[in-house]
Amino acid sequence: MDRDFKFDVDKAADLLALLASPSRLKVFGLISKNEWSVSALAAEVDLSQSALSQHLKKLRNADVVGVRRDAQNIYYSCSSDEIIKVLKTLEDIQKKSPDAKSVA
């Protein structure tokens, strides 16, 4: 396996910081499967619409979500297959080490 990674470490760290929020991970897990309205997302992840909007803004700024407006409703969906691959890799790592302790 080639382990000579060629990427911008600062951008990679920014991406990992974006994904480091449990709330954003929950949101991204949901919108990676289906399109969700802001109100439905807020109820599902138990956040106020204001708090959720702040998380969604960060995801929008990173260009990893798609946004669609329908009259008064705004819908979000995943626009990054690469982020889904990262999340799948995290899931695979967790499955291999289910009893690992938190290091944070």
Descriptive account of the structure:
The chain has five helices and three strands, in the order ααβααββα. With 104 residues, it is of the alpha+beta class. The chain has a single domain, classed as Winged helix-like DNA-binding domain superfamily/Winged helix DNA-binding domain (Arc Repressor Mutant, subunit A, Orthogonal Bundle), CATH 1.10.10. The protein has a three-stranded antiparallel beta sheet. A hairpin with a 2-residue loop joins β2 (65-70) and β3 (73-78). The model has no long low-confidence stretch (mean pLDDT 89).
What's the layout of helices and strands?
Blueprint: H1 9-19, H2 22-31, E1 36-37, H3 38-45, H4 49-61, E2 65-70, E3 73-78, H5 81-96
Radius of gyration: 15 Å
- SSE pattern, N- to C-terminal: HHEHHEEH
Share in β-strands: 5-15%
**Between the first and last Cα atoms, what is the distance in angstroms?**
29 Å
The CATH topology: Arc Repressor Mutant, subunit A
Low-confidence segments: none
List keywords for this structure.
single chain, 104 residues, alpha+beta, Arc Repressor Mutant, subunit A, three-stranded antiparallel beta sheet, 5 helices, 56% helix, 13% strand
